[in-house]
């Protein structure tokens, strides 16, 4: 390796783009950030797919934007990725089909079939900690068996998106616990595959044979020499275990000890806490996931966050990055407009067939600013609705750490503070998932070099919040939003009746 200060690379394979951050822990500076957009294949049946090769091409393009000295200084890489995607490989490691993603609702029938075979939703929670919700990896296997029999016939390994990137980087197949818990097959209490859930998914095959070994969060692997040469990196670069994007955003926002709540405003909206012990809700009010630090990560995920704001921005022909000027003059409550933002169907609440709607229009309030604001408010209320389940279980928080693309908007930051009535902090590194990848890479590097560092100590030393972007609840706005949130819940109630999913056959 070169004598320059070692750099730690975090990669985040998001839904809309791949992001790379290069972090110098000695100076505590991000020395480079690069992004590359991703396409999406969207079908009328709710399918949402990407080619795994697109992720690889985007990653290679991001590395290509680093200067040669930066590439020569890379010591370790940590990969974060959108959760739940299904990447089918044959025995030689060839990808057999486009990856069905976390927001693909075309397999909601298969979710019901698996839950029925497992004895119903409540029994899934007993067996593994989670029901099989729209988008979870498990449902994509029977769908593949039915709709892509030629893929099923050759299937040798199932990988998640970030696992596939790790496989490309190292030639090795593994999963870590955080992302593995989003398959629906991992018993999160014992951190072992649930034989019952695997059998309920496919009674004719031993699905465990398709799953790679599970590794600890501080594991490390050698980069494949050919890939190091292709990317212009040293051949002794190590690759960390990686993790699902929310697990990595937990690291990147310093959410590695109980008491912190992170919110990510990306394509999806997520809210999560971390715990040293398994946290399972018998009523399945949240996703009982594992973290990528050896612990657990109770999480709420909605499928339509910047999806909603982006759709409105596209309709009116502006970029969401210029959204602050469009919002000028608008007020909490969007002058009476209420949006249910379910453009993609929804997971929290479980309404995979739902669609978006706009309510409260009159002769004067239908402006682009109000509609854009209603989209932002609707996406925020949807998260607030999920948050109530965490609070009902007795979890309490003093702060929200905000990350993801939406955290760049000052209006959205203030809205989150007011809707949740909690102060908001934004870490200096707004790309929380990619930064988490860089910190996990640093952890793996330290461990590989015999140093007994913990991820909590690394996060404490390297995650810093940006005082200039903090937002505190404004009492007038808190009161106004409390009223508007009630309107949202009333409209949500009718949507729940209109789009109710299939009844649980076991109830
Ligand atoms: N200033 C901004 N105001 C509102 N939204 C923004 C702003 N900047 C970025 N975004 C939104 O963030 C999105 C990207 O978020 P990101 O967390 O990177 O998504 P993902 O990880 O799902 O690919 C953009 O598509 C855009 O909608
Ligand atoms: O499904 C979930 C969490 O369970 C999503 O949060 C995905 O992990 C996608 O993340 P983004 O692309 O929105 O970052």
UniProtKB/TrEMBL annotation:
Site residues (Important for activity), renumbered to this chain: 12
A UniProt-annotated Pfam family: FGGY_N
GO biological process, one term: xylulose catabolic process
Enzyme class: transferase
Domain Carbohydrate kinase FGGY C-terminal: 262-444
EC number(s) reported in the record: 2.7.1.17
Domain of life of the source: Bacteria
Residues reported in the UniProt entry to bind substrate: 83-84
Active site: 245 (proton acceptor)
Keywords in alphabetical order: ATP-binding, Carbohydrate metabolism, Kinase, Nucleotide-binding, Transferase, Xylose metabolism
Keyword ATP-binding: yes
Catalytic activity: D-xylulose + ATP = D-xylulose 5-phosphate + ADP + H(+)
Location of the Carbohydrate kinase FGGY N-terminal domain: 8-252
Entry-linked HAMAP family: XylB (MF_02220)
Functional description taken from the UniProt entry: Catalyzes the phosphorylation of D-xylulose to D-xylulose 5-phosphate.
Protein name: Xylulose kinase
Taxonomic lineage: Bacteria, Pseudomonadati, Pseudomonadota, Gammaproteobacteria, Lysobacterales
């Amino acid at each position: 390796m070169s004598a320059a200060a070692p750099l730690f690379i975090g990669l985040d394979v998001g839904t809309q783009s791949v992001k790379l951050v290069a972090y110098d822990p000695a100076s505590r500076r991000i020395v480079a950030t690069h992004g590359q957009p991703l396409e999406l294949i969207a079908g009328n049946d709710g399918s949402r797919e990407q080619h795994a090769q697109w992720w690889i091409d985007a990653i290679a393009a991001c590395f290509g934007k680093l200067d040669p000295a930066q590439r020569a200084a890379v010591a370790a890489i940590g990969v974060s990725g959108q959760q739940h995607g299904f990447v089918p490989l044959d025995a030689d490691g060839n990808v057999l089909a486009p990856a069905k993603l976390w927001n693909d609702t075309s397999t909601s029938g298969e979710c019901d079939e698996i839950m029925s075979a497992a004895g119903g939703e409540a029994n899934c929670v007993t067996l593994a900690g989670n029901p099989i919700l729209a988008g979870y990896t498990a449902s994509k296997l029977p769908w593949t068996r039915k709709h892509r029999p030629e893929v099923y016939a050759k299937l040798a390994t199932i990988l998640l998106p970030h696992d596939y990137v790790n496989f490309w980087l190292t030639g090795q197949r593994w999963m870590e616990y955080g992302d593995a818990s989003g398959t629906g097959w991992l018993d999160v209490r014992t951190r072992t595959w649930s034989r019952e859930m695997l059998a309920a998914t496919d009674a004719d095959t031993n699905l465990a044979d398709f799953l790679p070994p599970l590794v600890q969060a501080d594991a490390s692997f050698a980069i494949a020499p050919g890939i190091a040469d292709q990317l212009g990196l040293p051949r002794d670069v190590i690759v960390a275990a990686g993790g699902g994007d929310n697990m990595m955003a937990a690291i990147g926002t310093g959410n590695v000890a109980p008491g912190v709540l992170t919110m990510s405003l990306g394509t999806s909206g997520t809210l999560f806490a971390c715990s040293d012990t398994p946290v399972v809700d018998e009523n399945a009010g949240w996703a009982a996931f594992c973290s990528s630090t050896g612990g657990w990560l109770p999480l709420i995920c909605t499928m339509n966050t910047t999806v909603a704001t982006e759709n409105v921005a596209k309709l009116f022909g502006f970029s969401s990055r210029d959204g602050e000027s469009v919002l000028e003059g608008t007020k909490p409550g969007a002058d009476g407009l209420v949006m249910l933002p379910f453009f993609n169907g929804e997971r929290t609440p479980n309404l995979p067939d739902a669609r978006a709607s706009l309510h409260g229009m009159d002769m004067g309030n239908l402006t682009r600013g109000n509609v854009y604001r209603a989209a932002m408010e609707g996406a925020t209320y949807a998260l607030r609705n999920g948050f109530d389940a965490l609070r009902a279980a007795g979890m309490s928080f003093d702060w929200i750490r905000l990350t993801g693309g939406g955290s760049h908007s000052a209006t959205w930051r203030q809205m989150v503070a007011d809707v949740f009535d909690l102060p908001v902090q934004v870490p200096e590194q707004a790309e929380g998932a990619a930064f988490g990848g860089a910190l996990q890479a640093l952890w793996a590097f330290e461990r590989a070099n015999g140093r007994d560092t913990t991820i909590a100590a690394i996060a404490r030393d390297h995650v810093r919040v940006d005082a200039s972007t903090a937002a505190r609840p404004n009492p007038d706005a808190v009161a106004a939003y409390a009223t508007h949130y009630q309107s949202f819940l009333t409209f949500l109630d009718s949507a729940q009746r209109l789009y109710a999913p299939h009844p649980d056959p076991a109830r």
